[in-house]
Amino acid sequence: MEIGEQALFICQMASEWVKTKLPTKRLSYVDYIQALTRLQASTRDMVRTLRIFRAAFEQASQVCQSSEWVERELHFEALAEFVQDRDELLLLELAHGGLGNDAALELYNERSSLFGGTR
């Protein structure tokens, strides 16, 4: 994939993100570009990146979350793609996430269901 094609792809997703008007307290278009660039660098697959992006937004709208939540989930998914073991990363974060037990379990359940139980 050419760099220009990839940049256009990322800009289109960032524009889609802006249009959703999810609430945000601090994020800007540049933050969206950076989050999407990290994800694309990890997946190296535009179809996979778009699938993750859309799944995160669908879940955000279902559970009434903010753009910060989406950014965090895209970061997690980029890391999961990089380590190539999403389930192990989910369990590791559950065990060592630094969240209270209920919050960690809720986050684990949200992430587990992101793709309807399939990857």
Describe the structure in your own words:
With 119 residues, this protein is mainly alpha-helical. It has a domain at 3-83. It is 76% helix and 0% strand. The chain has helices at residues 3-20, 29-43, 46-62, 67-83, 86-96, 101-112. Helix 2 crosses helix 3 and helix 2 packs parallel to helix 4. The protein is globular and about 40 Å long. The mean pLDDT is 83.
Any chance you could write out the topology, listing elements then pairs?
Blueprint: H1 3-20, H2 29-43, H3 46-62, H4 67-83, H5 86-96, H6 101-112
Helix pairs in contact: 1-2, 1-3, 2-3, 2-4, 3-4, 5-6
Low-confidence residue ranges: none
Helical proportion, percent range: over 70%
- First-residue to last-residue Cα separation: 23 Å
Number of helices: 6
Computed Rg: 14 Å
Shape category? globular
User: How many strands, what sense, and barrel or not for the largest sheet?
Assistant: none
Task: Please give a quick description of this structure.
The protein has 119 residues and is mostly helical. It has a domain at 3-83. The protein contains 6 helices and no strands.
Task: Jot down its keywords.
globular, mainly alpha, 119 residues
